[in-house]
Design brief:
Length: 244
C-alpha cells in the first residue's frame, strides 16, 4: 500500500538489499509507490536472479546517477563447471556439457589470473543491450546470433575461496559495466569444460556496502515515520562522495 506523502520531500539515496526475483525496475516501481515520489532511479542494474546492493536515488539526488553508476563494484557468487548455457547463467538453456578436470581452488585462481586487468568483453546474446534498437535477448529468443561490440572493462581482482566440485565460490572486484556471467563463461572456456554463473550477490558499489542496506521485505513493512531515516540525505551523500 502507498505511504502517505512525506514532508519534507525526500531527496537522497536509499540502499536496498535486493532479493532474487524482481528486476531492478520492479524495485524502482515499488519504492516510487511507497514514497509517492516521481523521480526514482537506480545505479547499476542487477539481473532478476541476482541479489545484493541496489542504490536507488530519490528526487534531486537522481542528478548524481551518472557519477554513482560509474563506481567500481564488488560481487560474490558461485559458478558451475561442466555446463555452458546460452545466457551464461543458470536461467539459460544448457548448450553444452563436458567432463570437469581435476581442479582445486589454487588451480582456479591460477586460471582466473588471466582475467584480471583490462579486458575486451562482449555482452551475452541474452542481455538487454540493444542492436539497432532491438534488445539482444529478443533476437536470441528467435534463435538469432549477431555480432556484439566489445567494450573495455577492468577486473581488479578475481579470486576463488572454495571449490566443491562442480561448484566454485568466487569474489570479483570490477569496473562498471562488467558482465560477471561473461567472466564465468570465459573462465569455463579456458578450462575446456565450460561454466555458467550459478548465483551472484553484489556486496559493494563505490563507498556503499550491502551491510548497510535495507532488505526490501523489511522496507515495505516499515512504519511511515521510519522511512526517511533509511534515506541518505544530499548532505550525507556529498560528504561520502567528497574526494579524499
Amino acid at each position: 500500500m502507498p505511504r502517505s506523502p512525506q514532508e519534507p520531500e525526500l531527496n537522497g539515496a536509499l540502499l536496498i538489499d535486493k532479493p532474487a526475483g524482481p528486476t531492478s525496475h520492479d524495485i524502482v516501481d515499488i519504492v516510487r509507490g511507497l514514497y509517492r515520489i516521481q523521480k526514482v532511479g537506480h545505479c547499476g542494474t542487477l539481473d532478476p536472479a541476482a541479489t545484493g546492493l541496489l542504490i536507488l536515488l530519490l528526487g534531486r539526488a537522481t542528478k548524481l546517477s551518472q557519477k554513482l553508476t560509474a563506481d567500481d563494484k564488488v560481487y560474490e557468487g558461485t559458478l558451475q563447471l561442466g555446463q555452458t548455457t546460452d545466457s551464461y547463467d543458470a536461467q539459460g538453456e544448457i548448450t553444452a556439457t563436458a567432463e570437469v578436470p581435476v581442479l582445486d581452488a589454487a588451480a582456479l585462481n591460477s586460471a582466473a589470473e588471466h582475467f584480471t586487468g583490462d579486458l575486451q568483453q562482449k555482452p551475452p546474446m541474452v542481455s538487454a543491450v540493444k542492436k539497432d534498437g532491438v534488445p539482444l535477448y529478443k533476437l536470441a529468443r528467435k534463435g538469432k546470433t549477431v555480432e556484439r561490440e566489445a567494450k573495455t572493462v577492468h577486473i581488479y581482482s578475481f579470486n576463488f575461496n572454495n571449490y566443491t566440485p562442480p561448484v566454485a565460490a568466487f569474489r570479483v572486484h570490477c569496473s562498471k559495466g562488467t558482465y560477471v556471467r561473461s567472466l564465468a563463461h570465459e573462465l569455463g572456456q579456458k578450462l575446456d569444460c565450460g561454466a555458467h554463473l550459478s548465483t551472484l550477490h553484489r556486496t559493494r558499489s563505490g563507498v556503499f556496502e550491502v551491510a548497510k542496506a535495507t532488505r526490501l521485505e523489511e522496507l515495505v513493512t516499515l512504519p511511515d515515520a521510519e522511512l526517511p531515516g533509511r534515506v541518505l540525505s544530499l548532505l550525507e551523500l556529498t560528504r561520502l562522495l567528497k574526494p579524499e
